Amino acid sequence: MEKAKHFYRVAAHMDYAPAQYFFAKMKLRTPFSRMKLHIAHHWLKMCSEKTGKAIPLLNQVEKIVQFENDLKQHFYYDKGNENFFICNYLSNEKYEDEYSMRILGVKGRKQADIAYFSERISPLVSDEIVICCFPSSDHRNILTGIRKIAQFIAQEKGIDGTDCLVRWKSREKSSYGGERNIQSHVQTMKVFQREKIVGKHVLLLDDVTTSGSSLRAGEQLLLEAGALYVTKLALGKTK
Description:
Elements: H1 2-13, H2 17-28, H3 36-48, H4 55-74, E1 76-78, E2 83-89, H5 98-107, H6 111-121, E3 130-133, H7 145-156, E4 159-160, E5 165-167, H8 182-186, E6 189-191, E7 201-209, H9 213-224, E8 229-238
Parallel strand pairs: 2-8, 3-4, 3-7, 7-8
Antiparallel strand pairs: 1-2, 5-6
Helix pairs in contact: 1-2, 2-3, 3-4, 5-6, 6-7
C-alpha cells in the first residue's frame, strides 16, 4: 500500500493524470492524515482538466469540502484530532453549564436534549451523507442518545447508517479507567451493512470526545469497509 502510494505520488507530480486520480483516491481514504481532503481535492481538480473520469469524484469531494467549511462556520474544529465538536463539555458537576447539562441529557436519552442537538446538526446535512454513530462501550446498550440523534437527523436528511458501526464486545469506559487507544476500540467493533457506506461520505457522531481515539477508531473501520470519507463530529469535547 505504501509503495503504491509513493508511486502514485511521484507520478502525480510528473503530471500523469491517471496517477493524479488514484493518488487522490488513496489520500482521501487514508485515516489520520492531515489535510487529506484538500490534497485529494487539489489532485482531482488537476486530473479533471485532462480527463473526464475524475469529474464525478471531484464533484463528490467538492461537496465534502463545502460541508466541512459549513461545519467550521457553526461549530469548533479540533485540528489535533481532526474532528468537529459543538461545545466544550465540563464533566465535573461543580462546573456544569447549560451545554454540559444538555449532553448529560442526551446520555440519559432525554427527548428535549436529543431534539436540541438534532436540530442544530440537521440543517447542515445533505441527502447524500450517511449518518453513523459511535456505539456504547457496553455492547448491550444499543438505543443510546447519540444513536437517537443520528436517527432523528436521518429522518429529515441523509441516509440512516446507525446500524453500520457495531460494538460486538464490551470494553471498559475510558472515563472509568479504560484504555484510550485506537486498538482497544477497533478490536471490539465491526462494520455491518457495508453497502450503505461504500463510496459514500459518512458523518460519524459521538456524544463526547477527549483524546479523539474513539472517533479515529470509527473512522478507520468505516474507511476499511469502503467509505469514501468520514467527517467526525462530537456534541462535546472535554478540556
